[in-house]
Design a protein that fits this description.
heterodimer, A: alpha+beta, four-stranded antiparallel sheet, 7% strand, B: alpha/beta, D-Maltodextrin-Binding Protein, domain 2, 2 domains, three-stranded parallel sheet, Bact_solute-bind_prot3 (chain B), transport (chain B), SBP_3_CS (chain B), signal (chain B), Solute-binding_3/MltF_N (chain B)
C-alpha cells in the first residue's frame, strides 16, 4: 500500500486519527492486543474450569511411571519408563514410518511418473492403472487392505515362510537376521565417510576441470565405486568382523534378530503406495512442463540422451515438481496418524491414545501432539523451501 | 484471580466480551428433568454389559444402571439417550458434560477417582483380569505365557496390570494395542496374538463372538482387582447421590425379595424395610429431589440386581457367568448396599 504524500504545509500537523500511517499502526496494534487477550482469556478460562471441576492439570505427569508396554521402540523402553519416554517412543515411531514412507513414496513416485511417459505402451498403461487405482481409494481402506487382507492371511509363527532359513515371514511380522559388529568393524564406517568426502571433492574438481578444459571424467561412476567398493574392500581385508543373530522359533514366537511388525509394514506400504500415486502425477506434470524444444535443442548440441535428461530436463522439471511435492510429504507425515486404526504404536496411538487415557490430561497431551505435528510439518516445509530456492531459476 | 486480569485486558482492548462461559453448570437433575432423558455413556458394544439387541434396544448390566437412574428421576426407564463411547473417549465425554452418567465397565482406581474430576458411585460388577488363549496352544496357566504376543484394548487398566504381571513374574510379552474390543478379537482370531487379555467378564462376552468359541479357552488365573462401576462428575452431590442410590435400590430390592414381577404386591408388604424402600413409609427420595416412589419405579421397571445379573450376564444369558463374588453379602458375595432408612 502506498502512503499519500503529505501535501499540507509544514508546521500544521493533522490529528493522528487523520494520518493514514498512524491509523493503520493503531488498528494493527489493537488487533494484536485483541488476539492476545482472547488467547489469554481462553487459557485462563480452561484453567479456571479445570480447577473448578477438580481435574489435575500441568505437565508433571510426564515424569510419572507409564506402566504399560509398547511393542516397537527405537530407544530403550520398559513399562517402568516415564510418560515423557512414551512421548519420545511414539515420536520416533512416527518419524520412522514418516521418513521411510517419504523415501519409498518418492522412489516409487518418480519411477511410475517416468514410466507413465514411456513410449512403451504396456509400461505407460500399467503406470496409468497404478495411479488411477491407488489415488482414488481412501487411504484408511488401503491401510486396512494391507493389514487385514494381505498380512493377516500369512501363516502362523509355527508354519512361517522361511527364506534360506534366515529370514522368516509370518502373521507376527518379518524376522530378519541382525548383524552384530565385532571389534575392528569401526574401520568400515570410517572408510565409508572417507569415500564420501573424496567423492564430493572429485565431483567438484571434475566440474571445474570440465569448465576450464572441456574434458570430463565419469565422476559419478567413480564416486559410486568409491563409496561402495572401498568399504567392501576393507570389510574383506579385515576378515568380515560381523556375526549374524539369526531369528529362531522359541516358545510362541521367533526370538533374536530384527522384527518388523506387520502394523508397521501395512502402514508403510499403504502410505508409500498411496502418496506415490500423487507424486507420479506431479513428476509427470513436471516433465511435461518442459517444452520439447528444449530436448531437441540439447540433442542438436549432440548431448547424449542421459545428459539431456540430467542437464536440461530434470533441473527445469524440479522447479515445477518441488512445491507440490512438499505438500505430499506433509500429507504423508500427517496421514501416518492413521496408525492408531491398526495398532501401530505411533505418537497418536501411544501418547494421544494410551497416555491420554491413563493420565486423563487431555488438553496437555493433545496440545503436545499437535505441537509435534506442526513442528515436523514446518521443518519439512523449511527444508523443501530451501531446496526449492536452490533449484529455482536464477534470474539475472 | 486469573479471570479478573483477563477481564481487565479485555476491557482495555475494548474488543470482545464473552460472558458466562466460565459460569458453573446448573444442576444435573434439573437439566435432566427439562430434557426428559438421562444422558448415559455406554460401551461400543460389549454383550452382557451394554450392547444393542436385534431390535436396536440397548441391553446389559451397565445399561440397567442407566435405566434405573431414568426410572428414579423421570419415572420412565426408557427415557435414556445412550451415547456409545470407546475406552479413550469415555472420561472426556463425562467431564465435558456430553454424558451425565458413565456406565461402561469402568474400573474404579485412585487416579480416575481423584485426578479426573470424577466420582465412582459404587460397584455393579466385581471383576478381575484374565487371559483367553487358543486351545491349540495347550496352555493351562498364565505362568506359561512368557514371550507371548498379547492383544489388548487401548486406554484400559488392563494395559497396566498386564505389564505389572509380566514384570513381576520375570516374563516378556509383546503388547498389540487396538482401539476397540472388536479389533482385539479380530487380531486374536487372525493369530496376530497368542493371547487376548481383558476383564474375565469381557472375555466371556468376547469368546461367544468368536467364529469358533470352543477353539478358545479362558485361563483360570485372575491377575487383578477390577471393580467396575458407574461414574459421575465431581461437584454435583445431588446427582452423585441419585446414581449411587439407584444401584443401592436394586441391591436392596434383591435382598428383600422385591422383583419386577412382585413389586406391585410388595407395596402392601408389612415388612418395614420394604415399605421404606418402596416409599410406603416416609419419603426417602426427597433428599435427592425425587418422588417417594423412586425405588418402586426402578424395581418395577428395571428389576432388582439379581434379575438384571441373571438376565444379562448370568446363567440365563449366553455369557453364563456365575454370581461368585457378585452375590449378595448374605449369600457369600461382596454386593452390599447400605440400608434405606
Amino acid at each position: 500500500m502506498s502512503v499519500r504524500p503529505n501535501t499540507r504545509p509544514a508546521g500544521h500537523k493533522p490529528p493522528f486519527w487523520r494520518d493514514r500511517a498512524k491509523r493503520a499502526l493503531i488498528f494493527q496494534l489493537l488487533l494484536v492486543a485483541a488476539v492476545a487477550a482472547f488467547l489469554l482469556y481462553i487459557v485462563g478460562n480452561v484453567q479456571d474450569n479445570l480447577s473448578a471441576r477438580g481435574i489435575t492439570t500441568g505437565f508433571g505427569f510426564l515424569s510419572n511411571t507409564a506402566g504399560f508396554g509398547i511393542v516397537q521402540s527405537l530407544i530403550d523402553y520398559s513399562s517402568q519408563s516415564t510418560y515423557g519416554r512414551t512421548f519420545l517412543v511414539g515420536l520416533l515411531n512416527t518419524l520412522l514410518v514418516g521418513g521411510l514412507g517419504v523415501l519409498a513414496a518418492t522412489i516409487i513416485g518418480f519411477i511410475v511418473g517416468i514410466a507413465r511417459l514411456s513410449p512403451n505402451w504396456l509400461l505407460a498403461r500399467l503406470a496409468n492403472a497404478y495411479i488411477e487405482t491407488f489415488r482414488n481409494i481412501p487411504l484408511l481402506l488401503q491401510i486396512f487392505f494391507w493389514y487385514y487382507a494381505v498380512l493377516r492371511t500369512l501363516p502362523s509363527a509355527r508354519d512361517s515362510l522361511a527364506f534360506g532359513e534366515v529370514i522368516f515371514l509370518n502373521v507376527r511380522g518379518l524376522y530378519l537376521p541382525e548383524p552384530l559388529f565385532e571389534s575392528g568393524f569401526g574401520l568400515i564406517p570410517a572408510t565409508f565417510i572417507l569415500a564420501i568426502i573424496a567423492s564430493i571433492a572429485l565431483v567438484i574438481w571434475n566440474k571445474r576441470r570440465h569448465e576450464a578444459t572441456g574434458k570430463r571424467l565419469p565422476a559419478y561412476w567413480i564416486s559410486f565405486a568409491l563409496i561402495f567398493g572401498l568399504p567392501l574392500l576393507v570389510l574383506v581385508a579385515t576378515g568380515v568382523p560381523i556375526t549374524w543373530d539369526i531369528p529362531e522359533l522359541r516358545g510362541f514366537n521367533f526370538r533374536g534378530g530384527i522384527t518388523i511388525i506387520p502394523e508397521f509394514l501395512a502402514l508403510w506400504l499403504a502410505l508409500s503406495i498411496y502418496t506415490a500415486s500423487f507424486i507420479a502425477e506431479i513428476v509427470r506434470s513436471g516433465i511435461q512442463a518442459i517444452s520439447h524444444g528444449q530436448t531437441e535443442a540439447a540433442q542438436a548440441l549432440s548431448l547424449p540422451r542421459n545428459l539431456v535428461l540430467r542437464l536440461v530436463v530434470i533441473p527445469q522439471a524440479l522447479r515445477v515438481i518441488i512445491p507440490p511435492l512438499t505438500s505430499q510429504y506433509l500429507n504423508l507425515i500427517k496421514n501416518s496418524s492413521l496408525a492408531t486404526a491398526i495398532g501401530y504404536p505411533d505418537l497418536v496411538s501411544v501418547f494421544a491414545g494410551t497416555t491420554l487415557n491413563q493420565t486423563g490430561q487431555a488438553i496437555e497431551v493433545i496440545a503436545m501432539t499437535m505441537a509435534v505435528y506442526l513442528t515436523i510439518s514446518l521443518l519439512v516445509s523449511m527444508f523443501m523451501n530451501w531446496f526449492n530456492a536452490r533449484v529455482a531459476l536464477v534470474e539475472r | 484471580m486469573l479471570n479478573k486480569k483477563h477481564l481487565v485486558l479485555l476491557a482495555s482492548a475494548g474488543a470482545i466480551t464473552i460472558a458466562g462461559v466460565a459460569t458453573a453448570q446448573a444442576s444435573t437433575l434439573s437439566d435432566t428433568l427439562s430434557r426428559g432423558a438421562v444422558q448415559c455413556g455406554v460401551s461400543d458394544g460389549l454383550p452382557g454389559f451394554s450392547a444393542p439387541d436385534d431390535d436396536g434396544n440397548w441391553q446389559g448390566l451397565d445399561v440397567d444402571v442407566c435405566r434405573a437412574v431414568a426410572a428414579a428421576v423421570l419415572g420412565d426407564a426408557d427415557a435414556v439417550n445412550y451415547i456409545s463411547l470407546n475406552a479413550v473417549e469415555r472420561f472426556t465425554a463425562l467431564q465435558s458434560g456430553e454424558v451425565d452418567v458413565l456406565s461402561r465397565n469402568t474400573t474404579w482406581t485412585t487416579t480416575r477417582d481423584t485426578t479426573l474430576g470424577l466420582n465412582f458411585t459404587g460397584v455393579n460388577f466385581y471383576d478381575g483380569q484374565g487371559f483367553m488363549v487358543s486351545t491349540d496352544l495347550g496352555i493351562s496357566s498364565a505362568s506359561e505365557l512368557d514371550g507371548a504376543a498379547i492383544c489388548i484394548q487401548s486406554g484400559t487398566t488392563t494395559e497396566l496390570n498386564l505389564a505389572d504381571y509380566f514384570r513381576a513374574n520375570g516374563m516378556e510379552f509383546d503388547p498389540i494395542v487396538f482401539d476397540t474390543s472388536e479389533q482385539t478379537v479380530g487380531g486374536f482370531q487372525a493369530g496376530r496374538c497368542d493371547v487376548l487379555t481383558s476383564d474375565t467378564s469381557q472375555l466371556a462376552a468376547l469368546r461367544i463372538q468368536l467364529d469358533d468359541p470352543s477353539g478358545a479357552m479362558i485361563l483360570p488365573d485372575v491377575i487383578s482387582k477390577e471393580p467396575l462401576g458407574p461414574v459421575v462428575r465431581q461437584g454435583d452431590d445431588q446427582w452423585f447421590n441419585i446414581v449411587k442410590w439407584s444401584l443401592f435400590a436394586m441391591l436392596n430390592g434383591e435382598e428383600y425379595g422385591v422383583t419386577s414381577e412382585n413389586a406391585e404386591e410388595m407395596l402392601e408388604s408389612e415388612n418395614p424395610d420394604i415399605a421404606r424402600l418402596l416409599g410406603q413409609d416416609g419419603n426417602y427420595g426427597e433428599g435427592m429431589g425425587l418422588e417417594a416412589d423412586w425405588a418402586y419405579n426402578i424395581l418395577s421397571q428395571v428389576g432388582n440386581y439379581g434379575e438384571s445379573f441373571e438376565r444379562n450376564v448370568g446363567m440365563d444369558s449366553p455369557l453364563e457367568i456365575e454370581r461368585g463374588v457378585n452375590a449378595l453379602w448374605n449369600q457369600g458375595g461382596f454386593q452390599y448396599a447400605p440400608p434405606i432408612r
